[in-house]
Structures are given as structure tokens and as C-alpha cells.
Specification:
Blueprint (H helix, E strand, L loop, with lengths): L2 E9 L3 H9 L1 H7 L4 E4 L6 E8 L2 E13 L3 E7 L7 E11 L2 E10 L6 H26 L1
Antiparallel strand pairs: 1-7, 2-3, 3-4, 4-5, 5-6, 6-7
Helix pairs in contact: 1-2, 1-3, 2-3
């Protein structure tokens, strides 16, 4: 698969602290811009995200693809705004001397990269950078 977006950030905390915030309901609400997230963190488990984005309600859905505590989390994501397109989001944690590097990769589930993806890549990456900033704030608080 070819990435449609990538972002990374070093968070000044260990992998366990980052993982706890990354996967807890309270932590997810903090970094997912207020969305209510329900997730069954096991391979094949469902994920449902509900909230408001740009003043419009949404209910996005997905399924856990991999769950390796303190290392890697991957899930599908289908937006209610674009139900015909499913992304795969992969989040990897890598220990660093000054904390934990969190890397996010977003890909289309079918492996394609469309012209629209190329056009929206900067927006996708800006959104993921903002989410990682909020994750860092939630971990450090």
C-alpha cells in the first residue's frame, strides 16, 4: 500500500504512558477532537467514532487490524461523509532517548492512491499533526 498521509511526533513520555492515552476512552476523546470513541481493542473488534466536525455530526466506523500493546495499532476507518472510501490507519510507537516517537500512516484500504488523495494529502497530514499534538498534550497533562 502507498500512504496517502504520514505524520510523526516525539512525545516526552514512555511507550506505556503513550499507549494508555492512545487507547483509553478518555484519552481518545482528548486527542480525537472531542469525538466519543467506542473500541473493542482486539483484532477484528469494532471501532465507532461519533462527534461533530466543522459543525456537522458524524459517525465513523472501523475494525481493528492489529493490536500490539506499546508498539503498533492499526484499524480501518470509514467516514460517514465518504462511505465509499475506507482508509487504514496505522500508529506505531518507537522508543527514543527523549520519549516515544509516534508515527501515523494513512492508506486507502484497496492500496490505491487517487488524484483526490494527492490533492488532499496536505489536509490529511495537517489533521494528523493536530491529532498528534493533542495526543502529546493529553499524555503530558
Amino acid at each position: 500500500m502507498t500512504a496517502t498521509a504520514q505524520a510523526s511526533r516525539v512525545i516526552p513520555a514512555n511507550e506505556a504512558e503513550v499507549w494508555e492515552t492512545l487507547t483509553s476512552q478518555e484519552g481518545m476523546k482528548a486527542y480525537m477532537m472531542g469525538a466519543e470513541v467506542q473500541a473493542d481493542w482486539r483484532v477484528g473488534g469494532p471501532i465507532v467514532m461519533r462527534g461533530e466536525y466543522n459543525g456537522k455530526p458524524f459517525e465513523d466506523r472501523g475494525e481493528v487490524r492489529s493490536f500490539e500493546p506499546w508498539r503498533r495499532l492499526s484499524y480501518t476507518h470509514t467516514s460517514s461523509a465518504a462511505p465509499d472510501q475506507t482508509h487504514v490507519v496505522t500508529i506505531e510507537l518507537e522508543p527514543q532517548d527523549d520519549g516515544t516517537e509516534v508515527k501515523v500512516t494513512q492508506e486507502n484500504a484497496d492500496g490505491s492512491v487517487t488524484e483526490a488523495d494527492k490533492w488532499r494529502q496536505a489536509d490529511y497530514e495537517k489533521t494528523w499533526s493536530k491529532i498528534l499534538e493533542r495526543l502529546a498534550d493529553a499524555v503530558v497533562d
